[in-house]
Amino acid sequence: MNHLKDELRVRYQNAVAALTAVLTGTSTLTGAADANHLCRKRLKAMAIRAPKIAPDGRPFGYRVCVPWGTYCAAEPQHTPTMPRRAGPHAMSVMLRCQPKIAEWVEAYRHPLPPGPPPKSFGRLHDKVVAELKRLDLSQYYPLNTDDQGRRALLRYLRRQRIEVEGYDVTDVLSDEPTAPSSLWDAFRGHIFDRTEFDEHRIDVEAVMGVALPNGGIAKKKITMLWLLAEAEVESRAIVSWLLRVGRASNNHDVADCLARGLQPWQRRELTIPGLEYAPGAGMPAGLPGIAGALRSRCVAMDNAKSHHALDLEQAFCRAHDGVLLLGRPHQPRSRPVVEQLFSRLEQGALRMIAGGFEPATRLGDDKVSISGFSPEDHPVQLHLLEELVDVIVANYNATPHPALGSLSPLQYLQMRSQKLGWSYTPADRELGAREMGSVLIPVTIKGNYKDKVMPHVNYLYVKYRSAELDNRWELVGKPLYARIYRNDLRTMVLYQTATKPVGVLRAAAPWAHTRHDETTRKLVHQWSKQPGGLKLVGVECAIQAYMAFLRANATSSQQAVDQLARLQQQHPTLQVPPQKPMALMDTEIRAPRRGWVSLDRKRFR
């Protein structure tokens, strides 16, 4: 039912009601067909076929109510002969006459999404045609047709899958529990049994204003805007979301998005005039009682490279728990709820942003502008766009959904949470969200007693020190463990064993001044390795120097524009240091924080 459109779902429900009335004897064929707006001929065929055994060994049942493929009559029982022309069941008769080809077709298990068939189907069809030519059957069907039975074979495979993989009458009328036959069967029927996660490229051509070092403003186009979202299947509620800029997202962004669904949600202090939350707007994590503490037992996503990262899997198993279900590539039908969610958000709100457009649906066509506002006249600011998206998502959760009748997703969750016999809730939601954004890594203590190099730890091109490591020469060269919080790399927690911490280590200057995540540090390191790139020698704050460098190169580098937009999203109030050096008497003199300090080899002028 989840993969059906709304209008097809209504037709399916009418067919189920009519078939139930006929099979139970509460109505005649004509009466049931008229009451449910159904064709009497179709209802009769459904009633005849429903009790019969399907190829999977079970009755067809309510699978005959699917709005396509219900007029299939019974196949002939006499000894088959190779058909000479196309006709009803010609493909089925041909397969009965050629058991070897029938085995190939039966063994074909590749997905067949709507639209052009995949290359694997083309190889199967070529194999079938080659076998029929080898048997000298060129005068018979399907070799005597224009496409040599390609379209008929594709239709046959899709019809067989609909018949085998659809709903069964025993699942609806039987009181006995049915053993799950797939992972999806084990996680459905209750709220938060399954959530779906995906990344979506927003259909907006955004432009941002870059403040240049000379005081001017340059308008530069942003490459892509990505919306990462996790949606609950039963209620269609958006559990968490994240806005990112760039060519793609990484595993850190995925972990950050999942972590947002674990921590309690609160309304933002909106700064955009006229922007406000609707009555009852919010997120599932902001609901009172047990409804706000529930977490998903199964998170379904595609098999993108970032989803296979060990850092993501480690954090998920430690902080989130549950099943991480990685689907097949390019199969959006395996995650229909989140795909439909993105479509609703695009058509209802996101394309109304300045620069919003509708992508072309045919090859050679141009995209169609939707918003009517020029992106050059309305430059985007990422932290303000986050405010807008937060209001859009919160208001969506408070809007009645067609699949829920007159209920909104949040109302549905509150109603269903009161009937839960067993709930999957964390002991500490804040701690779980924080742990979701952390990793536990092995580190080796560096140092040299002879050269008086105090024990320290190197991580991501930066040295970490602490007073707890002073004169701990016995730790040099030994492998320990460190917990890194990926959203703030200014500190790390060092462990000698799993339950024995050594202390908190702090990053050396200039990385200890401003909060930054691991993606930012990697990008800074990449710029510093390029000829004529970023120089960190003598700077007070690496992040401020990084922002100043991006502004200086934004006019000539698209990467600098995207990274500057990302940095301004994280630090909207961060100030760029002055370009000219300050006078010595105006410079603030800072004392060392702690630890061993040496003034040897220092030169003063």
From TrEMBL:
Name of the protein: Integrase catalytic domain-containing protein
Organism superkingdom: Bacteria
GO molecular function: nucleic acid binding
Protein source organism: Lysobacter defluvii IMMIB APB-9 = DSM 18482
Gene3D superfamilies, sorted: Ribonuclease H-like superfamily/Ribonuclease H
The organism's taxonomic lineage, starting at the top: Bacteria, Pseudomonadati, Pseudomonadota, Gammaproteobacteria, Lysobacterales
InterPro entries membership: RNaseH-like_sf, RNaseH_sf
